[in-house]
Design a protein that fits this description.
By secondary structure, the protein is of the alpha/beta class. The strands form three sheets. A seven-stranded parallel β-sheet has the order 3-2-1-4-5-6-10, with helices on both faces. Strands 7, 9, 11 and 13 form a four-stranded mixed β-sheet that branches. The protein has a two-stranded parallel sheet with strand order 8-12. The radius of gyration is 20 Å and the shape is globular. It is built from ten helices and 13 strands. The mean pLDDT is 92. The termini are far apart.
Length: 332
């Protein structure tokens, strides 16, 4: 008899890749939680092998019965937004949504839950020294509601574990890959390709491919320790290095200059008076630029050691993502 596996956030970037990967296996019932209004494009390759179930993580009543009989739940639903215009929505989805899903899973007797967190729930490094799972959270030094909500969501996981829920936390780094139709991390590839990056921030990020994230999520369900968190990352690269890699992969070269945060604030002020913002990257908002001016460098050795996470050079990941955008005519 196969397992019943439920995935929240089934149409999101990581959620949809996970659903399609799980659907490749035989014998299990894969249920993807979607809203009535969800765009199902990201599930088109596996939609005939899964069951769509309708629910909204922000509405506890709509989840009633969804987890009954489920062996495993992957909680991938979340809002990724680096700004201050959606604070209420971030609270509803990332905090209340997590509470609703974990509570419903515990009450339904789900065997195990894997919760997808964010590196903003771990912290940032001011010294380029990679952080690990035990690093003290320091994003409270920045006004970034997204980071706060993901941090609180991990505290909710800890509460539920104390109440008896078997839950493991995975923390994906900066995720690129095929299937990123909403241009999460992939926005930077598109913007370099369109020559919209005349400046780059002075910080850096940890790059990982979505397929490695999906592999490791599945391994975390099998082998992760209850209540533990696992960072899923790869190369730690400065934005200077990342832009150079993207330019080499795309063949599009642009003069791009390093820009300190104070300089970005000056330019941002003058951009308010500009009629045409389309010539400069959407990544150029102050919340995002402030984060990108720090080093989001991470040590993923725990996931390698305990979950068998594989490593891939970031250039390979960038190339795969760019080629997928090109093949799917998303570069216009």
């Amino acid at each position: 008899m196969g397992k019943k596996i439920v995935v929240t956030g089934g149409t999101g970037f990581i959620g949809s890749r996970l659903v399609c990967r799980l659907a490749e296996g035989e014998g299990n019932e894969i249920h993807a939680v979607v809203r009535k209004s969800s765009d199902l494009t990201s599930l088109k390759e596996c939609i005939d092998r899964i069951t769509l179930v309708y629910g909204d993580v922000t509405d506890a009543a709509s989840l009633s019965g969804l987890f009954d009989g489920a062996d495993e739940v992957y909680h991938c639903a979340g809002l990724t937004y680096m700004g201050n215009r959606k604070n209420e929505l971030l609270e509803k989805i990332n905090i209340n949504g997590t509470k609703n899903v974990l509570e419903a899973s515990r009450k339904a007797g789900v065997r195990r839950v894997v919760h997808v967190s964010s590196i903003t729930a771990v912290g940032f490094s001011t010294t380029k020294k990679p952080l690990n799972e035990k690093s003290p959270w320091n994003f409270d030094q920045m006004t970034l509601e997204y980071a706060r909500t993901k941090h609180v969501a991990e505290q909710i996981v800890a509460d539920e574990v104390r109440k008896g829920l078997d839950c493991v936390i995975v923390v994906p780094a900066f995720v690129f890959g095929a299937g990123d139709i909403n241009f999460n991390a992939g926005r930077i590839i598109i913007d370099v390709y369109k020559r919209k990056m005349p400046f780059f921030p002075l910080g850096g990020v940890c790059v990982v491919d979505v397929e490695i994230v999906v592999d490791t999520l599945i391994e975390a369900m099998k082998k992760g320790k209850t209540g533990d968190r696992y960072i899923i990352g790869g190369d730690n690269v400065s934005f200077r290095e990342l832009l150079k890699t993207i330019m080499n992969v795309t063949g599009v070269h642009q003069l791009s200059l390093p820009l300190p945060l104070w300089g970005a604030k000056v330019i941002s002020y003058f951009l308010k008076f500009s009629k045409d913002r389309s010539k400069i990257s959407k990544l150029f908002n102050m919340s995002m630029f402030a984060v990108a001016s720090e080093f989001l460098y991470f040590d993923s050795s725990k996931a390698s050691r305990e979950l068998g996470m594989r490593y891939e050079p970031h250039e390979k990941t960038v190339r795969r993502t760019f080629e997928w955008y090109r093949d799917n005519k998303l570069l216009h």
